[in-house]
Design brief:
307 residues, Alpha-Beta Plaits, Rossmann fold, 2 domains, 10 helices, globular
Length: 307
């Protein structure tokens, strides 16, 4: 089956939102090309040395979000896509220019992998695609990820902040990962010794990908991946919770999540654009959390708090 590749030009701030719109419209997969995700050439690391210069040169100057639709899916999605993009005009989202081109199935299924190389995240974590080698150093905690096109690779600022905060604040006990995507945060927690981890996502494809990644990392005994809508169907309490999702969802989640945390339980959350920091801060305080830290990276914000 052939596909149409739909590309929207945007900004770092708008990339995750555009990707989410694509997925909700039924895209077969998405890809974000953002030079901000590349390592800083002025701060060389092993990660930078692994990145081929040809790959760097091929990165577009503006941020691009790509998605793939079959013929029927494109027909249903293109009108609603343009309507939603029109609503975002003037919101710091860039030009929101839409371009379309045909692509063979075998090309779109593999092309994106050229941009995904091993990299460090947090103090000890190394995230590597399942198809790439890595020379493990003392203290490295390896996370093998095959994001399956549509779900987080870990390069985004929000994921990096969440992993770093898990490293800083996790002190043992059970853990809940709400909106797990590729499962990267649950796997990071397991690498730190967490047991009894429950990872939840509403998207069946995300659940499938997360389960595959858990298996790749030999963590079936530590992580249970479930399909579910946020906290729906959960009855147990957890010592730690993490959610890397959109700010409005975090605001909605904050109060009911408390019933699923043990006394003194911690909550780390991100996926929050800078403009929404105040809303999330107010929602957490109103729900009775004590905020331990607010961290900023690029246009994004992460919170660590406890009850």
């Amino acid at each position: 089956m052939d596909y149409t590749e739909v590309t929207v030009s945007t900004t770092t701030q708008g990339a995750e939102l555009i990707s989410d719109i694509f997925l909700r419209l039924g895209a077969a997969g998405t890809q974000i090309l953002d030079r901000a995700d590349l390592p800083d050439p002025d701060k060389p690391t092993a990660n930078w040395e692994l990145m081929d210069q040809s790959v760097i040169d091929a990165m577009p100057e503006d941020v691009q979000v790509k998605a793939w639709f079959d013929e029927k899916g494109l027909e249903a999605a293109i009108g609603p896509l343009r309507e939603q993009l029109n609503l975002l005009q003037g919101e710091g989202m860039g030009t929101l220019k839409v371009t379309l081109q045909g692509v063979k199935e075998e090309d779109w299924a593999e092309n994106w992998k050229q941009y995904y190389k091993p990299f460090r995240i947090g103090d000890h974590m190394v995230v590597k695609p399942t198809w790439e080698p890595w020379d493990t150093q003392p203290g490295d905690l390896i996370i093998e990820i095959d994001p399956g096109m549509a779900f987080g690779t870990g390069t985004h600022e929000t994921t990096a902040m969440c992993v770093s905060m898990i490293e800083k604040y996790y002190q043992g006990g059970t853990l809940l990962d709400v909106g797990t995507g590729s499962g990267i945060l649950a796997i990071a927690a397991a690498r730190l010794g967490a047991k009894g981890i429950v990872a939840v996502d509403i998207d069946p494809d995300a659940v499938r990908v997360a389960k595959e990644n858990v298996a790749h990392n030999g963590l079936k005994g530590a992580i249970e991946v479930r399909k579910g809508d946020l906290l729906q169907g959960l009855s147990q309490r957890f010592d730690f919770a993490v959610a890397n999702i959109l700010a409005p969802v975090i605001c909605m989640l904050a109060a009911p999540l408390k019933a699923h945390l043990t006394p003194g339980g911690r909550f780390v959350c991100s996926g929050i654009i800078a403009e929404a920091e105040k809303d999330v801060n107010e929602a957490l305080l109103s729900a009775g959390y004590q905020i331990d830290e607010i961290r900023h990276q690029g246009d994004w914000v992460a919170f660590a708090c406890h009850i």
